[in-house]
Specification:
This protein is α/β, with parallel strands linked by helices. It has 2 domains: about 10-230, Spore Coat Polysaccharide Biosynthesis Protein SpsA, Chain A (Alpha-Beta Complex); about 235-310. It has helices at about 1-5, 25-35, 50-55, 70-85, 105-110, 135-150, 165-170, 180-190, 215-230, 235-265, 270-310; strands spanning about 15-20, 40-45, 60-65, 90, 120, 165, 195-200, 330-334. Helix 3 links the parallel strand 2 and strand 3 (about 60-65). It is elongated and about 85 Å long. The model is unreliable at about 1-10 and about 315-334 (pLDDT under 50). Bound molecules: guanosine-5'-diphosphate (GDP) and magnesium ion. Magnesium ion binds near residues 94 and 96.
Length: about 325
């Protein structure tokens, strides 16, 4: 197992697989993933099929959440569970066989070699182009452009679910987004951190049909991206449009002033519109500035809390890589 011997540091390599109704593929995905890491954690979200049982039979540590809470919440649960083993690297991948478990080695490598904290497996960097359905490609590229612009962090594939994390990143990243927007959220969370980002090429295959309406899915991700932008980049979201609006208002006012001088009549529409634009623009500017200050304050407090938490050891994996304190049991109900 190349991945296990490629680093001098201790701690296991853990795979976290969020899975919802994946009985068709989960068994084979777990069996294959086990070859490339020390522990496979499957987070099942109250699947109505045999996903959890099959994952367990294949040798995964299965965490059964009682109801579907979304991929982000499942990843939070999986990360918390992985943290108890103080892993050298944690790799997340999909449970529908879309990702090749053999590539766990490639995705984890920058972490194991110590030059990255977050590795993103990109579908658009591989020399051989996979057969990704055209409508998926359009959505993936559009969401990547939007996420890159909105978050200020650039990736070639913002929607990929094949990623790896160092212990430091595992401690710092927690997600709030619903549905399948967690990958975009991650990009916002990385902005302003000192976590080192790397991209590696991966391959995908789509064995499953269309699980959801692509337009509804795309719009829900766009909705999340705009919400994240408002919260995490308030200057860009509020103050920049506010400034543009205020400038527009001033130009309209200037034009109205000239009309008054030439005709001695007040142009009602442009005067009212100009004033409205100026007032709303200024309000947006002030809102953006205040929210930006609060965001910086919240980020600093979070960092300080994490620094304190980091000083508390919580290992359950000994120097030789043996599991010494099984704090989580198979099929634990959370
Ligand atoms: N635990 C859990 N896993 C989920 C949920 N939604 C999706 N997943 C899993 O996340 C992975 C990616 O989801 P998928 O529907 O294949 O997304 P797509 O490949 O982007 O179309 C798969 O392993 C799913 O089973 C959820 O609500 N809970
Ligand atoms: Mg999939």
């Amino acid at each position: 197992m190349e991945v296990l011997s490629s680093s001098g540091t201790t701690g296991p390599v853990v795979a976290v697989i969020p899975a919802f109704n994946e009985e068709r593929f989960i068994g084979s995905v777990v069996l294959a993933a086990k070859k490339y890491c020390n522990l496979v954690i499957v987070v099942d979200d109250g699947s109505s099929d045999r996903t959890a049982d099959l994952a367990e039979a294949a040798g995964a540590l299965v965490i059964r959440r009682p109801a579907q809470g979304g991929k982000g919440a499942a990843l939070n649960t999986g990360f918390e569970a992985a943290l108890r083993y103080r892993p050298r690297a944690t790799v997340m991948l999909d449970g529908d066989a879309q990702h090749d478990p053999a590539e766990i080695v490639d995705v984890a490598r920058p972490i194991l070699e110590g030059w990255a904290d977050v590795v993103v497996g990109s579908r658009f960097l591989a020399a051989r182009r996979d057969t990704i359905p055209w409508w998926r490609q359009i959505g993936q590229i559009a969401l990547t452009i939007l996420t890159n612009q909105a978050s200020g962090v650039r990736l070639s594939d913002s929607q990929t679910g094949y990623r790896a994390f160092s212990l430091e990143a595992l401690r710092r990243l927690r997600f709030h987004s619903q549905g399948l927007s967690v990958e975009s959220e991650m990009q916002f969370l990385l902005k302003g951190t000192n976590l080192r980002l790397a991209e590696v090429p991966i391959h995908v295959r789509y064995l499953d049909g269309n699980k959801r309406n692509p337009v509804v899915h795309g719009l829900s991700v766009v909705d999340t991206i705009l919400g994240l932008m408002a919260r995490r980049r308030p200057l860009l979201f509020f103050a920049v449009p506010g400034l543009l609006l205020a400038v527009g208002g001033l130009l309209l006012g200037y034009q109205a002033f000239h009309v008054v001088r030439a005709t001695h009549q007040i142009p009602l529409v442009s005067t009212v519109l100009g004033m409205l634009a100026l007032v709303i623009g200024l309000l947006l500017g002030v809102t953006g500035t205040i929210l930006n200050t609060l965001e910086h304050f919240a980020t600093r407090v979070t960092k300080e809390i994490l620094d304190v938490a980091r000083e508390r050891p919580s290992t359950s994996w000994d120097e030789a890589g043996h599991h010494v304190d099984p704090v989580i049991h198979h099929s634990r109900q959370l």
